[in-house]
DNA sequence: TGCACCAACGGGCCCAACTG
DNA sequence: CAGTTGGGCCCGTTGGTGCA
């Protein structure tokens, strides 16, 4: 019988899992009458999951994240038993076929055999969906299970910008059953569009904003999971075997980040905005410094309402090569002005 | 100036083994 | 047997180099 997994068993840059108590504390003590919560750069959906008692709207530009968000938060019914049976079948299978995954990714992030199995399973999920054996939520749950299983064994440093050379493939693909709620709010909605395109189209009580902080594009870091989630089998190139990601680039990773942020905030229709942003302004390598200055954050948020800042020490991740001190994760709360 | 490519290893945590 | 040590698993984000 399949073991289970939950939303936090993903390796993900900027993962807010450890900050959830801090975020909850700020929201609970500062915001009143919250019914609709928007996680507009939802990523894996960790922050949204902390507000599961509310009506949730999630959004992410990556389809792989959208699929996982849909698996966790969609109100659509699914059969846990059916998913578990399928996962058990997948885990018991020995696959040795050549497919899109073996042709492009053998012995890079995964061994040939694991590639073969990943390719087979992903194709089979689509077949089952086309044959109406599984519904949309069940498809999302199975893809999420596959993505989480891949992430667990990938020969990487946590993301797919590069794979590690000369390391044994000692783990094998094992799909786990996602522990998704069956009692999600009936009005929950998951989007897969640019946040700036969504901002003006929704009305909420609280909008949580957790954009990329630096020049590292999430579509670069997670191209392989995105590729498998989409399953459009694009051509891949370079050592890291990346696909074309032009449409998935975020403005928040470029020097026009502040401009994009300003446009986003102006469009929002909500009572409260909570923004997560670190204080890496000028501390590290240019690649890693924050893209939006504190001055810009204050200027933009103050034009929208009353701003308060809450900060908490957050141990900076280090590989021993850098020496970044006084790293803080900060929450900017904006109590929005009433609109006339 | 931006990004493609490459991947390093500190530290938290769990648990078994050891010690007094 | 309670307390301590340390092995090993797991998580995670940034630095360096080179080229367009």
TrEMBL record:
InterPro entries: DNA_methylase_N6_adenine_CS, MeTrfase_D12, SAM-dependent_MTases_sf. Keywords: Methyltransferase, S-adenosyl-L-methionine, Transferase. It catalyses: a 2'-deoxyadenosine in DNA + S-adenosyl-L-methionine = an N(6)-methyl-2'-deoxyadenosine in DNA + S-adenosyl-L-homocysteine + H(+). Its EC number is 2.1.1.72. It holds the Pfam family MethyltransfD12. It comes from the Bacteria. It is an enzyme of class 2 (transferase). GO terms for molecular function: nucleic acid binding; site-specific DNA-methyltransferase (adenine-specific) activity. GO terms for biological process: DNA restriction-modification system; methylation. This is site-specific DNA-methyltransferase (adenine-specific).
